[in-house]
Structures are given as structure tokens and as C-alpha cells.
Amino acid sequence: MWSLWPGRVINAGKSRHNEDQACCEVVYVEGRRSVSGVPREPSQGQGLCFYYWGLFDGHAGGGAAEMASRLLHRHIREQLKDLVEILQDPSPPPLCLPSTPGAPGSSDSSHLVGPQSCWSSQKEVTHESLVVGAIENAFQFMDEQMARERRGHQVEGGCCALVVVYLLGKVYVANAGDSRAIIVRNGEIIPMSREFTPETERRRLQLLGFLKPELLGGEFTHLEFPRRIQPKELGQRTLYRDQNMTGWAYKKIELEDLRFPLVCGEGKKARVMATIGVTRGLGDHNLKVCSSTLPIKPFLSCFPEVRVYDLTQYEHCPDDVLVLGTDGLWDVTSDCEVAATVDRVLSAYEPNDPSRYTALAQALVLGARGTPRDRGWRLPNNKLGSGDDISVFVIPLGGPGSYS
Amino acid sequence: MWSLWPGRVINAGKSRHNEDQACCEVVYVEGRRSVSGVPREPSQGQGLCFYYWGLFDGHAGGGAAEMASRLLHRHIREQLKDLVEILQDPSPPPLCLPSTPGAPGSSDSSHLVGPQSCWSSQKEVTHESLVVGAIENAFQFMDEQMARERRGHQVEGGCCALVVVYLLGKVYVANAGDSRAIIVRNGEIIPMSREFTPETERRRLQLLGFLKPELLGGEFTHLEFPRRIQPKELGQRTLYRDQNMTGWAYKKIELEDLRFPLVCGEGKKARVMATIGVTRGLGDHNLKVCSSTLPIKPFLSCFPEVRVYDLTQYEHCPDDVLVLGTDGLWDVTSDCEVAATVDRVLSAYEPNDPSRYTALAQALVLGARGTPRDRGWRLPNNKLGSGDDISVFVIPLGGPGSYS
Prior knowledge:
The structure is a homodimer of 404-residue chains.
Chain A: E1 8-10, E2 20-29, E3 48-59, H1 63-80, H2 84-87, E4 96-97, H3 127-153, E5 158-167, E6 170-176, E7 180-185, E8 188-191, H4 202-211, E9 220-221, E10 237-240, E11 249-252, E12 260-261, E13 263-264, E14 271-272, E15 282-283, E16 305-310, E17 321-325, H5 327-330, H6 335-346, H7 355-369, E18 371-372, E19 377-378, E20 391-396
Parallel strand pairs in A: 9-12
Antiparallel strand pairs in A: 1-20, 2-3, 3-5, 5-6, 5-15, 6-16, 7-8, 7-17, 10-11, 13-14, 17-20, 18-19
Helix pairs in contact in A: 1-3, 6-7
């Protein structure tokens, strides 16, 4: 069995205000009545269990993060219900299912259109890709629920979501936002996510602005410039790039180029529509451009990127861990520094002491927070500590308190 | 100096018909009159030279490949003209240039708006990214020229384009299509391109079909299914994925799902709109869906991905080469097999024998073609040889006949 709270520290103690939320659950998925139409006895106990960890970094209010921490795993469970039998059956997933799963008399197993009845070329779909699809759609359903309930239930703001699902021997890491997950295995770093920001998603955003210019409301241009163009520069030529380019070129400055660029700024200061610095996540249905009624949500994606790690392909030792952190950790701590802290803290404890992972999570948070001196919270290198909320999960991959 | 024809073999001799074209040039770029507005003496000789290799794999006629092989490097030269002074000046590129470069009296150097006069945060633009932008735009201008001249000059068909530009110590590899470039350096393989196919570009294609459904003409659906849905399956649930998903999920089959999928098939048989198996390249302005008037061009991109390799960062030996090949080579030859052939052939020649690179290119083509036996052209492993055109360039990175 996984120990369910292997190590998590929220809010580094700099303020009482915290928009980070976290969740950690064992979730049991009971199948719908047999997808093949044959009613199944409840006593057969063919449900599935998954282990779940979620970090939710809220912005512009804590409502979305709070709601996601309560409900996202239930959406994942809901999406997995249809798959309970399929995932436990080693044969390839059926291409078609009857319309109403398990509705009495609606169908029988002959309605299952398997590969045998298919045309010549049928694409192979793996069990793994069904779980990925279930997680992807769960994010979308969560986001849609926030849209529906935003008025009645005060779902303010939005949140990044970084979620881990452990199911049938595989670890699924789903990330929508700028949190990050890495595996530290035998000292080696294996990235398990990437960040979605105005810089990393520039071309997707620009393409959308180009194809749907009405979303720019006449206030923004889909072109990127190294800085904002000034009216007196009209008629000169300036550096620019569009949705097709990674390089830069010169173009003559026209009136439209004086609009604010859809994507501007660099690093942590990069923004979409001069407003938001993260381009994927849940919520933000009410987010508008500052002093305008232009909605930003069309440019944000609620879909995560899901990476899969097969836990059975490698014999893990007690020092192998999966580390999840919000940007409060990663803004001031590199992957290598995290790996060094993993090594330093875990080696100070007995391998079978479960508290070593909690200690590690605390060390990571405190290391990113710094200590108060010189008019600020400082890191050992005297740089400023993270001023953001800092949340960390440490999930052991092979130690005590890991999977059974 | 590079030897200009270090090794190239076109058409493996199976037929007289060949849609591949190639080009290899030293191109001199004379600057426009000084971008700063001060006329420059022609005798100053401040032009730039670049070395150029291009492989063009035509389809549906040889017109586009032939035209690209004649003209693409001229478009690159044209795009570089504005940059001749800038690229030779170690200071950062100016953000703005006067409107009409070098037009007498149009401006003076005070019109150059350098970083010093900029707002607080100006993005840094490198010389390298200007060359990348110039190559990207040259592909677009080439494609636009084909669109303009397709009637008058019989530009039939389209072509993949794989182009190498060596300029000021750096190698720029630009790829639009399914050709491939790799560097073999000290036996190690460094990929210098990736292929653009209905599979690798699925989500871009689906997103376009979703945002602009009129481009699907009521004949196609932007959703992907493992195989085409049959009318009798209406109302059942089928596996699908959309532009946001990498995984698969089940959805109820509706009438629209009976349309043909925008993207279908796998591997070499993957197709956009059941027609074309490559999603980037030049030309194809007249390409229509089979037995329909629906144009396919809106789904094809003429923009290359450009990768940069800094030749000065590593001391190259005579066995280090850049290998370019059309898909006729790579369909039957892996990167590792190419690296093994590089090793085998080059070690059979003296390091200073320039003919070793030609011999290597010939060996690669003949190896992919196979030899006639058992009712077909067979490879040593008895698999069928490539039935496609096979074109290969071998460019030495550190041997005799490489750069001065």
C-alpha cells in the first residue's frame, strides 16, 4: 500500500493567505453494469482501485483550487467506470460499446464490435491510452462543472492542476499549468511534466488569435514584437514573429501593430493579454482583460499533458521518489537541487523509516522559502526565497509505504 | 571551402521517372544599400556567402520540386539581403529599421531605434534567430510564388523540401516534409530534423478542422476514429480522440461521425483527407480531395522547422558528416544503419580522399534500393527495397573539401 500522506507541506508560513490546495486519496472505481450488457454480481468485486495525488495552485481567488481538490478525482473515477472491465481484460479494447452501458435488454455481447469485424486497417488502441483519455476528459468535465456552478457556488479564480494517478502498475502524471513533477531515481532526474506558459504555448495562442481574430477584440495583435511598438515608429520596420515562426524578421509597422501583443514579456513576467502568466488550468471562466470586457478563457486550455511511467519496468529502491511541486518550489529550486536534497535528506534516515519522506517534503519547502534576514526571506545563496505559495508532494516509488 | 557535390545520387535506377530534385550552390548575398541609410561603396565587399544544399521530393508531378530546386535559395538570398550588415555587427540587432532601406534621404542612422531607446523589458533577439526567420519566410515566399505562377508556368504537384544553409559558422537545417537529416559525429547520431506527417501533425490538423469547420466541406469530421464508422453502428459508442487528446475515449456515435476522418491510417499509409501523406511542403495549390472540389492546401503548411548546429563548438574529424535523405532512404534504413554505413565506407578510404563522400552517398542509395532477386528488389535481410525515389546528400563536417 502507498502511504497516503508521504510528505506534503503547504504554505511556507510567510502569510496566512494561501491559494494552494492539495488532495490525496485512494479511490475505488465500481464498474458500471457490465459493458457487455450482462449484469454483473456486486459480489464479484471486479472494481478497480487507483491512488491519487493532486496539487492545485490557485490564482485570482481560491475557489477553483478548492473545488478541484474536492472533485477532480471523482471526475476521473466517473470516466474510468466504463473501463473497469476493459482494463482488466488483456485483449485489445473493443472499438464499439453498446449505447447505454448495462441498460437491461439494451444490448448483448454480440453488440461488441471487436477487431475481428473491422475493416482492413484498424488503429491499435492500448489500455494505457484509455486511461490517458479518461484523465484528459475528466479535466474537461471538471472545467465544465466550474463553468456551470460559478455563479451559485462562488467559484472564483482559476488553478493549475498537477495530478498523479497510480493504476494497474503505471503512474500517470497529468499537468495543466506551471507546476512540475520529476522522478529522482538512483540520483538520475526523469522529467514527468512540462510547464504551459505564454512562452511555451506562444504559437498555439498566436494561431488561435490568427484564426479567430474576433477573440482579440480589436485590442490585441496576434503578432509578437520584442517590445511594444510606439506610434511614432509607424512606417518603420520592426522585428516580429507570427504563429508560424520560431525566428524573427523585419516587417513594416502598420496601424494594427500598435495594438498590444497577445503574448508579451519573458520568463515569469510573460503574459497572455497582459493579464495571466499560465495558459492551462481549470476555472478562470470570468477572467477578463484588465479594464475591459474581453474574456481570456478562450485562450486557456483545461487539457493536461499526461505522461506515463511504468513502475514495473524497473526495480525501485527506497530512495527513488516522485516529487510534485507548485511553481513556488521550482521558481527558486532547480531539478538538480531537488535531487541533491532528496539524496541528503533520505540518507539521514533509515530506509524503512516512513517519516523520511515527510522530512524530505518539509526540507524542500523550507529550502525554497528561505529564512528571514536582510529585510526579506533569503536562501543560503542570499537570493530572495520564493514569495509564492509552496506545495510539495513526495511519493516514494520503492520504499516502505509505497505500493503493495 | 566546402566541396559542392560531396555525394549525391538521385534515382536508384528502377525507373526512368523521378520526382526528386536537388540543388547545391554557393550563394553570395550583396547587402542592400546600407540599412542605416548611408550608401555603401560596392568595393567595400561586405557581402555574405552561404553554402546551400536542397533536396526536393516531389509528388503529383515534378513541377514544384523543379521550381523549388531552381529558386528557393534565391528567396533565401533575398531575405538575407537586409541582414548583411546586421549579421556582421556583433551588437544586438536593431529593433527598428527605416522604412525603405537605403532609399536616398529616407532616413539616417538616428532612425535606428536600438535597445537603448526601448522600454524596460525588451526581448533579446539573436543573430541566429534572424537567419532562422529569413529561412522560414523564404519558404513562404517560394510557396506564394508557386501559387502565383501555377497557371502560366505549369507548376504541378508539390514537394517536400529539406534545405541546409551554412552561414557564419553555423549550419541551419530547415525541413518541411518527410525527408530527414542526421549528423553522424564520432559514431554518435544527432537528429537534425523531424518528419511532418498526418500522424505527427494530427492535433494541428484537427484543431484547424475544429476552428474552421467550413474547410471540411461537410465531407470530413475533425475527430479521429481507429477505423471508419459504419452506418449500422449509429447510436453505439466508439473510441475517438479530438484535437485536445493524446489518449482515447468512448463517445456515442452520431450522424456526423459517419463522415470520413480528416486524419486516418497509420505509418506510411496515414493520410490527410484520404489523399496526402505529408503535411508540410511547397506547392500543392491545386490539390483537391479525390472526386471532390474540396481543397487540401489549407491543411498543409509551407513552413519548415529549422534546427541550428554550431560548427565551431566541436572539433570535427573527417569522418563526421551530415546526411540528408528523402523518405526513399529512411523508409528502409534506420539512423543506426546509416551510421554503420558511414563508418564502413569512410574507413575504407584515406581520410583525405574527397571521393569517399561520394562513395558513401552511393552506398546509402544502393543499400536502400536493394538488388533484384525473388521477383523484386531485395535488401540483404530479404525485405523489399525502397520503391520510392532515393536521394542522398553527404556533407563532410571536418574533412577535406569541407569549410575553409
